[in-house]
Amino acid sequence: MATESMEIDDSLYSRQRYVLGDNAMHQMAQSSVFLSGMGGLGIEIGRLNAVTLHDTKVCETWDLGSNFFIRKDDVSSQKMRVEAVCSRVAELNPYVHVDISSSILDNNTDLRFLQKYQCVILTEATICLQKRVNDFCHSQQPPIKFLSCDAFGVCVRVFCDFGDEFVVSDPTGEEPKEIFIQNITQSNPGVVTCMDNRPHGLQTGQSVVFREVNGMEELNGTVQHVSEVLSPHSFAIGDTSQLQPYAHGGFVFLMKTPKTCRFETLERQLSDPQVLTPDLSKPEAPLQIHAAMLALDTFQEEHNRLPNIGTARGTVPPLTAAVGGLASQEVLKAITGKFAPLQQWFYLDAMEILRPLHSVSPEEFLPRGDRYDGLRACIGESLCQELHKLRVFMVGCGAIGCEMLKNFSLLGVGLSKSSGEVCITDPDLIEKSNLNRQFLFRPHHIQKSKSTTAAEATYDINPDLQVEAHLNKVCPATESIYNDSFFSRMNVVVTALDNVEARRYVDSRCVSNQRPLLDSGTMGTKGHTEIIVPNLTESYNSHRDPPEEEIPFCTLKSFPSVIEHTIQWARDKFENAFVHKPSMYNSFWQNHPSPEVVLQRMKAGESLEGSFQVIKLLNRRPSQWEQCIAVGRLKFEKYFKRKALQLLHSFPLDTRLKDGSLFWQSPKRPPTPVEFDLKDPLHFAFVVSTARLFAAIYNISYSTQDLSEEVVASILSEVRIPEYSPLDKSVETDETAKKPDLIKMPVNSEEEREAITHLEQAISTCERLQMNPQQFEKDDDNNGHVDFVASASALRARVYSIEPADRLKTKRIAGKIIPAIATATAAVAGLVALELIKVVGCQEFESFRNCFFNLAIPVVVLTEPAKVKKTMIRSNIYFSIWDCWTILGHEDFTLSDFMNAVREKYGIEPTMVVHGVKMLYVPVMPGHSKRLKLTMQKLIKPSLDRRYVDLTVSFAPEADDEDDLPGPPVRYYFSSHETP
């Protein structure tokens, strides 16, 4: 990864840095981990950590179904498992050295060789060896962190022991937020009330730090303990009765307090285990599995093998993937002290997949000498065959998509010989930042298609799969490709993307085509899965996430109070100057190709939308590098000096509101104008990055020398800064006001005359220029995009006395980067693939599980999905989101025939028929009664290839004074020969 003296490669590790932080990243780089056991569970953990890999076994066919880094050639050549996987593990991370060991590790081994490791992980080890190694690790000073992990068929476990006193530097991983203060009482205890009654989210006993309090200034910079939470928006602290009276302003933020955790050895924990309970519907399960697995341990000790019957010898790859992700996160905690560790056992089972298998013949579970023997031992041959025949459509080939394809490979989903198929689509190309967690991709894949590269890598794991790779987005624009015929061909749809609107669109297609949808997502250490099954569960569109809280326009423009405001302001400035205006400029000249014609029409008094903005850009365009630098310097003056002077002119520091209170009080911060200083790195960075961006949109070349301080200083010495004089204009203070549309703002006659003059000058002096919009690209550190946003945000923060953010945080917020770590994506994909097995097995509602987890705490919560709701139309006639009534028509089928058919087939009177936004029949509308004689073909005018349409039909209520009743969509087929 990097040594402490080396810089972390942000282009590779940025998403992981957002999760772990730089200190933890450096600790990981210097760590040394010993991992024993290269089966399916071991390799899941091994690929996510810097390790010495240990194993003594030879590759077998069985391994192909659980270890995605073992190939057929490794089996045929009888290669040692550890040798087969070593180079492939090392390939995942060029900064990590991977060692291997095939030495015997048993009850007679001298364990002192483990002293050089910070963490030891055992898989596929006997319980006796686990206890011996754990005792050794626990006794060391400092203790060696110990984990053991086991997978027995449909049950898996993790055990952690990090010593008697393990200090956790950051128990939650949550970013502290600023809580603005409305009031602090002068009392014992002092009561703090939050601004606008906003919830503080604090807990009794936590520590907070006060900043920028006016009046009761003794609190500033002090750490206070929350003695009691009084309400969601107020809390008590210590004695404030002797302090100065509170005046106004200030904020508090939660101070992270290290936590010490104490662990017992495996020996002590066996009899009184401390367990995490993931599934609250079966709270007794962890202890029952604990007892059952101890029985298996005893059997192994006595017979040196696992039982021949039952699932214990088998393996369910998604289950090992899920627990492997969790265990890997625990390894990171052991090394770094970042996040709260598991104390001390975690058990996860997939018992639900066994429920339909009790009546299956025992022969179904016997080995057949192929890669699926481990899976077959758990789910039987028939269910394996159903997986092989499966046709899956997966949208997105990013981190989760790569993990899903790994699971498909191991499960044998979509085999070509079984007429199965995995169809994947992703329009994106592979970036360097993807390599850290999208594990199918390597450095030589950068700038190649994600979907086609992922397909090739999937074949490498399991050549028998049938993978079809597309490069399309899935949205209304691609409906002709991903139509009903396509969806009806697919058995299951999987979404592996972070676009909410795309998810909603895919969900609507799944509902209309009665197809199950498996959805999931991660954010840092958090993950969720949602299983959507036709006629059993609610759909993705059945619930709506709360809308993202928007920053008021006036706050961004004039009254920022936190760093997020200044970052968003800088990002908006980038979008307006370097994306929106150039795009508008190009669009205008595409519609008006001749400047002379535009001039003629403007002189004739014609109003052309956007013309004034375009002419202003044309008039102010730079044509050489020196002018770009000058523009950057003038922008500095405008943004960080003149705007502040104008605001203080409009609202002097002593301005008071109607109630007598100060205008400038928290959360409003008064600005301080900044004087330009070329020696200030921030000032220099802003001017140069601004100049570079203007040069990019106007095709102006410059050299490396042109970026030097010497050249920039020389250019700036010639730039004249106009004298400032305040303007008499109003400043928006209403937080509900929206940003005005500048293109549609009224233009006075003087501005019209100026625009015409400018256009005449532009026509006479140059040709019309094409501009190059600069779409914000966060992952290219050489393009100046993040430089502009980071410097602009930091300077605005300086103007308003806001604590600035570093470049990494600025980049995350400005680029809307979702923090990501491979441990969470591995876990979430494993949980989704488990549900896939249940879907293929046609299980009952009670078997399915949604999941939410936060590996940082750690919390894992499995719950039943939301059951589908049924709506009563009337008297025992119900429908749900999954229902679609069907009517078969023909060429001469009239609207009247359609309504009669609905009445006769479903026993209810239709009153209104709508197709999309077009009302086909509404009785009260003039002339609509005549439509009853028209054919459905004439009313709808379908395209030649259209087989059917979905119509919205309302029905007559039972009582005359009631509203019309809603119903399910009615699918009308234009021909009776069509098969619904």
TrEMBL record:
CDD domains according to UniProt: Ube1_repeat1, Ube1_repeat2
Pathway the protein acts in: Protein modification; protein ubiquitination
GO biological process, one term: ubiquitin-dependent protein catabolic process
SUPFAM superfamilies, alphabetized: Activating enzymes of the ubiquitin-like proteins
Reaction(s) catalysed (UniProt annotation): ATP + ubiquitin + [E1 ubiquitin-activating enzyme]-L-cysteine = AMP + diphosphate + S-ubiquitinyl-[E1 ubiquitin-activating enzyme]-L-cysteine
One annotated GO molecular function: ATP binding
PANTHER family per record: UBIQUITIN-ACTIVATING ENZYME E1, UBIQUITIN-LIKE MODIFIER-ACTIVATING ENZYME 6
Quaternary structure and partners: Forms a thioester with UBD in cells stimulated with tumor necrosis factor-alpha (TNFa) and interferon-gamma (IFNg).
Similarity annotation: Belongs to the ubiquitin-activating E1 family.
Protein's UniProt name: Ubiquitin-like modifier-activating enzyme 6
Source organism of this protein record: Takifugu rubripes (Japanese pufferfish)
Organism lineage string: Eukaryota, Metazoa, Chordata, Craniata, Vertebrata
